[in-house]
Amino acid sequence: MAEENNDHTILDNMKGAFAKSLVRNNKKIKEDRAIAISESAEMIYKRMVEDLEVEIKQLKRNREAMLDMSPRTTDSLELAADFNAAEFVAKDIKLGIDIRNLEIKIEIARERYNHLFKEAN
Fold first, then answer.
1. Fewer CB in 10 Å around end: N or C, the chain?
2. Which three-class secondary structure state does DSSP give residue 15?
């Protein structure tokens, strides 16, 4: 019995994360794991939403830039000869579809992010 108390005293006097981690109880271990998993998932989810926002902005800028059809110089007619209406329309529609798909994706991602990490159940 004295030896058991002596071991307990030695363990209680040990400092540092290693000794403390060895004697953590099951509840504390589960709590630490839950925090690590939740923080990782939340950071990645948040980053995904931010990346989608950037991608949508860039596509919208690209679509608007397509409307800049000013010639290189004021007396140049080069642009009119080079303009391909079918390609313009196809690219404009594709960008519109890409933007819409990303808007749907970001709406779903935001809803899930808020549900998983912000709302109290």
1. C
2. coil
The answer to whether residue 112 sits within a structural domain is: yes
Residue 101 forms part of a structural domain: yes
How confident is the model over 44-53, as a mean pLDDT?
A: 97
What kind and span of H or E run contains 60?
helix 26-65
8 has pLDDT over 70 = no
Count helices and strands in the chain by DSSP H and E runs: 5, 0
Tokens 């798909």 correspond to: 101
Per residue in 75-100, pLDDT (tens digit) is 665 566 678 889 999 999 999 999 99
Q: Token digits for 90?
A: 């196809």
Parent domain of 73: 36-118
- Asked whether residue 114 is assigned to any structural domain, the reply reads yes
The structural domain count of the chain equals 1
Is 70 contained in some domain? Answer: yes
